[in-house]
Every structure is written in C-alpha cells, then in structure tokens.
Amino acid sequence: MTETLETNADPAELAKFSELAHRWWDPDSEFAPLHAINPLRLQWIEGQCPLAGKRVVDIGCGGGILSDSMARKGADVLGIDLAGKALRVAQLHALEAETPNVQYREVSAEALAAEQPASFDVVTCMEMLEHVPKPESVVRACAQLVKPGGWVFFSTINRNTKAFLFAIVGAEYVLNLLPRGTHEYLKFIKPSELASWTRGAGLELQEAKGMEYNPLTRRYWLSGDTSVNYLAAARRP
C-alpha cells in the first residue's frame, strides 16, 4: 500500500480530511453539502442501476455517507479510502446505526483492482478524482474493478472560470459552504478529460448530469448543465 500511497495520494489532502473526520456525520458541519447532495446522488445511481443485491465498491468513501445509504438500499458495500481516521468514523457509524452489509478498508483503488479485478457490479467514485495526483489512474482502477456489464459512477468538478467562481470563490469564501482550501482549481477535471480517460480504460459513457445549487433556497438539483459540478455514468461492455 505504501507504494500506491506515494504514487497516487496527496498526503496534504489525506491530512485535511483526517482532521475533520469526527465531523463527517454532523449534517451542520463542513460536510453539510455532502449530506445535502447525497439523496440526489443515490437517486441518480439507482435510476441507472437498482442497487438491491448488487456488490458495490465506493472509492474515496470518506466517512461513509454514500456507502451507508447504498447499503440501506440493499447493496453489499465495501467503502475504501486512504484516510484512516475517516474510515474509523465510518465504521463506528455503521455499528451505531446498525447498517447492514457495509464494510470499510484502508486500501487504494489501484491495489484493490490488482487484488479483486472484475469483482463488483457497481463502482462509485464521487467527489474524489479532484483530490488525487493521478485521477486517470483511479479511472483505470475503476474499470478493472467492475464486472463486464457493470456500472461505474463518477462525480467531480469542471475546470473553467465559472467553476472557479462557483466552487472555490463562492462555496469556500463567500457562502462558507466548504472549508477554505478544500479544492485546488488546477485539479478540476473537464468532462472531455474524464470521457477520454473512461474510453481509454475500456468503459462506455452512458450519461452525464450537472448538479446545481441555489444559495437563496439552499436547494441542490440535477440538470443538463455540467459547467460546474457534474456526474458521469459509464459501463464496462
């Protein structure tokens, strides 16, 4: 694991999320946006691929917000991350909430792909690609992990002036939705780049959706506008 940690994880990013780990399940904390968008993410995933009975791996699961909700839909879920403190919070929450069929492991996507190729019906990688040095490597690992015919779901942030203004200036400095320094603009990913990586990894893109936010009503919704936050669904042939 050490080799993968050095090659495709940013120690500063891991430290940042570890420091906040105890606040993952506080819906009024720095993770409030994740709690707010989780029902939308879950509904979108379920709309493409009903989760009941599926084997799922949630890459970059953090404190387990999405992992937990997918398990409650009847999936057998493995959440993986390299931030140990966040994983311990996820495990503790699963015990306290008595969430069925969810487990957590401190392992990289690449290492798990080498260990368990073509083992999962569904792979999710949400709000994670923009936090690693080599996102294309994670995309390849996702493609290796999913079974033929299975689904891979991504969500990330576009790289353009509007995304800089909305996702960094607006969310971190004006509205204080996220801690300052949560995102780095140069790590944002254009949909064309993500599409190229997924095709290169042998996946076929099925759908892309934008996620928008109204600061006055504090409401999130999915739309056709992928200019800031967006989700992408792909399948392995």
Automatic annotation (TrEMBL):
It is an enzyme of class 2 (transferase). Its EC number is 2.1.1.222, 2.1.1.64. It catalyses: a 3-demethylubiquinol + S-adenosyl-L-methionine = a ubiquinol + S-adenosyl-L-homocysteine + H(+); a 3-(all-trans-polyprenyl)benzene-1,2-diol + S-adenosyl-L-methionine = a 2-methoxy-6-(all-trans-polyprenyl)phenol + S-adenosyl-L-homocysteine + H(+). Signal peptide: none annotated. InterPro entries: SAM-dependent_MTases_sf, UbiG_MeTrfase. The keyword Ubl conjugation does not apply. GO terms for biological process: methylation. Pathway: Cofactor biosynthesis; ubiquinone biosynthesis. One of its GO terms (molecular function) is 2-polyprenyl-6-hydroxyphenol methylase activity. S-adenosyl-L-methionine binds at R41, G60, D81, M126. Keywords: Methyltransferase, S-adenosyl-L-methionine, Transferase, Ubiquinone biosynthesis. It holds the Pfam family Methyltransf_23. Belongs to the methyltransferase superfamily. UbiG/COQ3 family. O-methyltransferase that catalyzes the 2 O-methylation steps in the ubiquinone biosynthetic pathway. NCBIfam families: UbiG. This is Ubiquinone biosynthesis O-methyltransferase.
